[in-house]
Design a protein that fits this description.
Elements (H helix, E strand, L loop, with lengths): L11 E4 L12 H17 L3 H15 L2 H9 L3 H8 L11 H9 L3 E5 L4 H11 L7 E3 L12 H10 L7 E5 L6 H6 L2 E5 L24 E3 L2 H10 L1
Helix pairs in contact: 1-2, 2-3, 5-9
């Protein structure tokens, strides 16, 4: 096995949004998940159980359910995003400790998400992290090609002029770290802390021992705080 990559050379810090910058058990993503199921059921005129099956099938095969609905059924991405992100963001609470740790890290901090800028801004506002980040690359910037598509990471790197070999990527899905690692990024997998029950697909929990995962943490705030001290 090759040596795990470190952080001493990093000047750009890249973060996924949902289930990465806040804990999985907060229940925010479960709200989105439920609205995706409802959207699929309404659009395809199927019952909730069938909608759930289609939702998860498209999520795994296309990267997002939205991409599957666009490809298979010609659904408008704008309609999809507006509906599924119409949620209650109040379960999120400010995380000043994370803000302090991020502020101490050298270089830029960027968001790379399969969600929309509007949703990202609401999340960052609730976490009191909005001023901490220098930009958001969302699914619209990606031309609706979600992670883990290779071209999405390339668009991100080019648009924000990021040197992949001087960047670190933080994600809650191991499969979304494969291409960043291939490009030269230091990769960190953020996993549930194990103290509270979370609902995830079995495949979403896989990959923490994959060679493209350099580091694993169940406490992102603590992990960043340690990096800030080093």
């Amino acid at each position: 096995m090759t040596d795990k990559r470190g952080f001493g050379h990093i000047d750009t810090w890249v973060f996924d949004l949902d289930n990465t910058l806040y804990p999985h058990h907060v229940n925010l993503w479960q709200q989105v998940d439920g609205r995706i199921r409802d959207f699929v059921a309404h659009q395809l005129k199927v019952d909730p159980a069938e909608a759930f099956r289609i939702q998860k099938d498209y999520y795994r095969r296309y990267g997002t359910t939205m991409r599957g609905m666009m490809t298979e059924h010609g659904v408008s991405p704008d309609d999809f995003l507006a509906y599924v992100h119409d949620i209650d963001h109040s379960p999120l609470e400010p995380n000043p400790a994370m803000g302090q740790a991020l502020a101490k890290l050298p270089g830029r901090k960027l968001i790379l998400t399969n969600a929309s800028v509007a949703h990202a801004e609401k999340v960052l506002e609730r976490l009191a992290l909005g001023v901490t980040f220098d930009g958001v690359f969302d699914i619209i910037s990606a031309e609706f090609e979600p992670k883990p598509a290779r071209q999405t990471y390339r668009r991100f790197l080019d648009l924000h002029e990021v040197d992949a070999e001087r960047a670190a990527m933080f994600e809650d899905l191991a499969r979304n770290l494969a291409i960043p690692h291939e490009f030269g990024m230091t990769t960190v997998l953020v996993v549930p802390d194990g103290t509270q029950k979370v609902v995830r697909e079995a495949w979403e929990m896989e990959g923490r021992d994959a060679p493209h995962v350099d580091h694993v943490t169940d406490d992102l705030t603590g992990f960043l705080a340690q990096l800030a001290k080093s």
